[in-house]
Amino acid sequence: MKNFLSLITAFIAIAFIALPLLAQTDITQTIGQQQATQVVRIGIPFPDLAQGLDPQMINNTFFAPLTRDLAASGVFAIAPLPPGVAPTPDLAKRVGALYLLRLQVITEGEDYVVRGRTIDTTGTELLAKGYRGQATTLTKIAHMLANDLMKMVNGPKSAIFLSQIAYASDRSGSWEIWLMDWDGGNQRQITRHNALSILPSWSPDNQRMVYTSFVAGTSDMYIINRVGGGRMRLRTGLNLNTSATFSPQSNDIAFVGSVNGNPDIYVIKDDGSDLRRLTTSSSIESTPEWSPNGRQISFTSGRSGSPQIYVMDAEGTNVRRISFEGEWNDDATWSPSGEEIAYTSRVSGRFQIRVANLITGQSQVIAGEGSNEQPTWSPDGKWLAFQSNRTGRWQIYRMRAEGGDIQQLTTAGENKDPDWSKKAE
Amino acid sequence: MKKTVKAFALSLVIVSLALVPACRSKKTQEPVTHPETAASATVPEVPPPPVTSTTTTVAPPTDFVNEKPVQEEALPADIEELNRVAQERGYIADAFFGYDESALSSEAQNALQTSASWLKKNGQYNLLIEGHCDERGTEQYNLALGDRRANIAKEYLMTLGVDSARIRTVSYGEERPFDPGHDEGAWAKNRRAHLVLVGK
Q: How far is the CA of A144 from the CAs of A39, A134, A155, A159, A275, in angstroms?
């Protein structure tokens, strides 16, 4: 799939420099192999630009992110277009596209205005929408437009291009919480504790995160909003306060607390009230994660002699083990459908991402170089982000949930603990 | 006065040495705690058990408590320097663990016994125990494992008579390795309960 990405990049470059049409069949074939039943071919001519706008700048900040989103979607295939031909229904027919997306970018004062119109081969207008913002928002507009196209052909849940990945990075000199767009763009620091701050986890509405920081000399949970404000320390009276995770259905937060060296799974309300203990085993319990309907919680326990994945009802009852392969399993996380669990599983001495189907009981290892840990699902369940030290340093990667299309999202410093925002937006 | 203190310390060492095998076999045995407690600042509230009667005649606990602690050399005032010196001179020593283990080996128990003796004679410091793990586990489970290691060390120090109010624990899991290497030599150094002296 690397070829696919480079082909797309090459095509985009070619389209803009208005060179003759090349290699269109290669591109569509590659996509067709993956999503043969769903792919919608769409032609996207480079935008009409108001006079004075720099095509290179519009390409880098707007057009390239837009076409990358759609090309990666598995829903759209971008039809290469011959240069200098008017974007008419006839052109769409000629390149075998179902749709044409006509774009226009103009400026009004400090603002950029992007207009997008989608037509089919009969010339019928399906989606006409305008977007406005300053130059710094052009990439966000690209993701919004890609989302609108996804909603048009595939429903709202597949519109993930504005989703965010929270993670921990040490690039500022200490581990802090950072955010980035789904494609690794727009990386920005959210906390400034100047102290070890790790394991961010999103609230179900994508508005807040909970994480663990050692800023007070103890390890504590903090809640913060998505722009880094409104920070609140959750006082539990327990040690550890790690692996915190919001319930998808209530204002509960599950986490690992410890009394006298016995780590167990606890739940507390997001205002710090109503602390409840869910596990009472004398072994180590760790890493809780809610099922999407909030009725079950997966966790890691050493009760069998090695760390394994278990599932219990959200009240702490009905505990059953679900991982039986591998001598060390941790980091379980539920797919948005609730049918699969991805987790970190040691295979032949190295950690790999394993995806287990809860209905069939079958599991599959998605093997990669180095250690690969802490998987997190995209809101549509099509992708997994994870951390890998395959380059010798911890970095965050994204791949398709069945493996493949691997892309490195971070490069500065070391980066870990990815958590993908829960809601498509 | 110094002589009597030294004599007391010596007799105390003899008493504790005689009791070491008992500590190893069962860390919660009562006879270990009482004579050791006699040397700590809380003694006046604790009725001295019969075993200590010989030592109390040498130096009454109240006199001992008012005395400056016995030191070969002066301790640095700077807390970081103090910790370096205390580890270097063997006043306090870290407890090391096996892979995915939180049980105390006999070496780890020895290290904590040494540390407990010194801590009880130097009541002006509190103790932070950091639990650490090697990089081979997963981050989240290792945080829990580090918590267990730090607390096992804390419990043993309490058994040896160090006041629990003086000890705090924190787990760093695999976040702060002592040795950044990726071999067993490094990993062995990174699986530890690290003792840090802190001011009161």
A: 20, 15, 14, 9, 40
Nearest to B151 among A198, A260, A417 (CB): A260
Contacts of B155 in chain A (CB under 8 A): 260-261
Statement: residue A31 has pLDDT above 90 = no
Residue in B closest to A332 by C-alpha = B140
CB-nearest partner of B141 from A218, A260, A286: A286
Helix ranges (H only) for B26-105 are 30-37, 53-58, 61-66, 79-88
pLDDT at B114: 97
d(CA A319, CA A312) in angstroms, rounded, equals: 4
User: Complex ipTM, two decimals?
Assistant: 0.87
Compute the count of residue pairs across chains A and B with CB atoms less than 8 Å apart. 92
Res A23: pLDDT: 29
A199: left (phi over 0), alpha (psi -120 to 50) or beta: left
Structure-token pair, residue B22: 């008992």
Query: Would the pLDDT of A141 be above 50?
Result: yes
A209: β partners: A202, A224
- Cα angle B171, B177, B182; round to 5: 135
Contacts of A285 in chain B (CB under 8 A): 144
Distances (CA, A) of A357 to A337, B49, B194: 11, 63, 41
Q: How far apart are alpha carbons B13 and B5 in whole angstroms?
A: 12
Per-residue b/e over A212-247, b at no fewer than 16 CB within 10 Å?
Answer: bbbbeeebbbbbbebebeeeeebebebbbbbbbbbb
Phi-psi region of A162 (alpha: psi -120 to 50; beta: other; left: phi over 0): alpha
Assigned token pair, B101 = 């283990």
Residue type, A242: T
Is A268's pLDDT higher than 70? yes
> What pLDDT, in 10s, does the model give residues B113-129?
999 999 999 999 999 99
- Specify the pLDDT at position A274: 97
Taking CB atoms and an 8 Å limit, are A374 and B139 in contact across chains?
yes
Nearest to A185 by CA among A203, A169, A162, A207: A162
Would you state the pLDDT for residue B27? 38
Please report which confidence band the pLDDT of residue A38 belongs to, taking 50, 70 and 90 as the band edges.
Answer: low
Distance from CA of A250 to the nearest CA of B (A): 24
Nearest 5 degrees, angle CA B11-CA B12-CA B15?
Answer: 90
Indicate whether A369 pLDDT > 50.
Answer: yes
Q: How far apart are CA A233 and CA B82, in angstroms?
A: 32
Which pTM does this prediction carry?
Answer: 0.82
Q: Which residues of chain B have pLDDT under 50?
A: 1-5, 7-67
Q: What is the pLDDT of residue B68?
A: 52
The per-residue pLDDT for B38 is 37
Taking the C-alpha atoms of B34, B38, B40 and B44 in order, what is their torsion angle to the nearest 10 degrees?
110
- A43-69 average pLDDT score: 96
Query: Contact B138/A417, CB-based, under 8 Å?
Result: no
